[in-house]
Specification:
By secondary structure, this protein is an alpha+beta fold. The protein has 2 domains: 12-138 and 244-274, Killer Toxin P4, Chain A; 145-235, Gnk2 domain, C-X8-C-X2-C motif (Killer Toxin P4, Chain A), CATH 3.30.430. The protein contains 6 helices and 13 strands. Strands 3-4-6-5-2-1-13-12 form an 8-stranded mixed β-sheet. It has a 5-stranded antiparallel β-sheet with strand order 7-10-11-9-8, with helices on one face. β12 (259-265) and β13 form a beta hairpin. It is a single-pass type I membrane protein. Pfam families: Stress-antifung.
């Protein structure tokens, strides 16, 4: 079934759910979400030229460093003032440069499919993140919720699970950059964007931890992605290593279709999709 939605001035966030919740931390190609602006640019426009240059710079830089940001066309009088492109990328803190580059290149290659001709997009895989916009968002604080997912099942062990879960989340809240934590049967990791100051990172992670607790309750696994940081936790043994990566999702979901599982509107539209 094809789902068509037309909402002006809102951002469409599409969350594709595979049959299980996620994969081991070593995975980096599993799809998390894509957010596409409703405004589009014209093909062969000055903005498209700058955007292509931006995306090319992101791919090249990802083989050298796990985080970088770019502004293309904002310091020249030769192009219209509204044609500048701003963007950044980040890879998960435990990835090697080779894996970061592979993750980013794969993600960039899907933009035309996921967000064709859109002025802005945010795309998140397990291992990497890319965002670009027509307006300058670089360095501006944003703790808006982008994506959340909670397991249907609750954690085993009742109060013991909750205590260990809260210990892991408390440890992750103190991260500066990227941190992995484990206590007993509960594991997790968290990360802030590379340009956040330590105090801003702490504030962002505190908000993410608060949201994952309130939204997921006693769930065995929970993910909360804010605009500039994320927190993920799970009970050991919950994840299944057979999750599909981006290629599998593209083949199954986008070409075979999908059915709507759940949605909520305000102030952004979030749609969770699951394979029939």
């Amino acid at each position: 079934m094809l789902v068509l939605i037309n909402l002006s001035s809102l951002t469409l966030f599409i969350s594709i759910l595979t049959c299980n919740h996620g994969s081991h931390i070593q995975a980096h190609s599993n799809f998390i979400y894509a957010g596409c602006s409703q405004d589009k640019y014209q093909p062969n426009s000055p903005y498209e030229t700058n955007l292509n240059s931006l995306l090319s710079s992101i791919v090249s830089s990802s083989s050298l460093t796990l985080y970088n940001f770019f502004a293309i066309g904002n310091a020249t009088t030769e192009t219209p003032p509204d044609s500048a492109a701003y963007g950044l990328y980040q890879c998960r803190g435990d990835l090697k440069s080779r894996d970061c580059s592979t993750c980013i290149a794969g993600l960039i290659s899907e933009i035309a499919l996921l967000c064709p001709y859109t002025n802005g997009a945010s795309l998140q895989l397990d291992g990497c993140f890319v965002r670009y916009e027509k307006t300058d968002f670089l360095g501006k604080l944003d703790d808006g919720l982008r994506y959340k997912k909670c397991s249907v099942s609750g954690g085993d062990g009742g109060g013991e699970f909750m205590r260990r879960r809260d210990d892991v989340l408390a440890d992750l809240q103190g991260a500066v950059g990227f941190r992995v934590s484990a206590t007993g049967a509960v594991e997790g990791y968290a990360q802030c964007l590379g340009d956040l100051a330590a105090a801003d990172c702490s504030a962002c992670l505190a908000e993410a931890v608060m949201k994952v607790k309130s939204l997921c309750g006693a769930a065995a696994a929970g993910d909360v992605f804010l605009a500039q940081c994320y927190v993920r936790y799970w009970e050991s043994g919950y994840y299944d290593s057979s999750s599909e990566g981006l290629d599998g999702i593209r083949t199954l979901d986008f070409w075979l279709g999908f059915r709507v599982f759940n949605y909520a509107l305000h102030p952004i539209l979030t749609i969770n999709l699951i394979l029939d």
